[in-house]
Amino acid sequence: MGSNHADKLLRLADAQPAVSARELAAAGVPPRVLSRAAARGHLRRVGRGLYTGIEVSPSAHQSVIEVTKQAPKAVVCLLSALEIHEVGVQAPFEVWIALPAGTHAPKGTGTAIRVTRLSGAAFSEGIEIVMLDGAPVRVYSLAKTITDCFKLRSKVGLDVALEALREGWKARKFTMDELRRYAQVNRMTNVMRPYHEALTG
């Protein structure tokens, strides 16, 4: 394990709760180095194609991190996004992700997932990169998430959407301009207008 590749592998694995074989290969770590390190117990396997350092503690967001590592195109959405933004009291046992239409959901994650298919601006707008215990994760902004909750209120419940709207606004976690922008993207302007007016009136 004295090679530069092995040293790089261990640095990357020690830096976050999960790193994928795909990420390691992109960083220039040959597959044989990864296989050798895992076989010798220098890494801990935490999921299908996912590894971490042997002394790295699991993250409070471990499931979210692992799912998004296994589905690089995914964006954390709806209830899981609210949890990341610390709005509401949602503690979903499933990881909620959005995927572009036509993209296959990850298999063999070991974690329950809920997939929402979005297309066009409804998928691509409002994506942020947040760091969860050293791991970069794609998640929708709070304003986008709230408008998604209204759009998909049949899945998450109108009460969840209203709670997130009131709590996020009270905590000044978004502006009304942001909310209106994403309401337009999601074609929710008319649905959400009475609630906007109640907040600002």
Question: What can you tell me about this protein's structure?
Answer:
The protein is of the alpha+beta class and 201 residues long. It has two domains: 4-53; 62-200, Beta Polymerase, domain 2 (2-Layer Sandwich), CATH 3.30.460. It is built from eleven helices and eight strands. The strands form three sheets. Strands 1-3-2 form a three-stranded antiparallel β-sheet, with helices on both faces. Strands 4-5-6 form a three-stranded mixed β-sheet. The protein has a two-stranded antiparallel ribbon with strand order 7-8. A hairpin with a 2-residue loop joins strand 7 and strand 8 (135-140). Helix 5 (78-84) runs antiparallel to helix 7 (142-151), helix 7 packs antiparallel against helix 9 (158-170) and helix 7 (142-151) packs across helix 10 (176-185). The longest helix has 13 residues, at 158-170. It is elongated and about 65 Å long. The model has no long low-confidence stretch (mean pLDDT 91).
What labels describe this entry?
single chain, 201 residues, alpha+beta, Beta Polymerase, domain 2, three-stranded mixed beta sheet, 8 strands, 47% helix, elongated
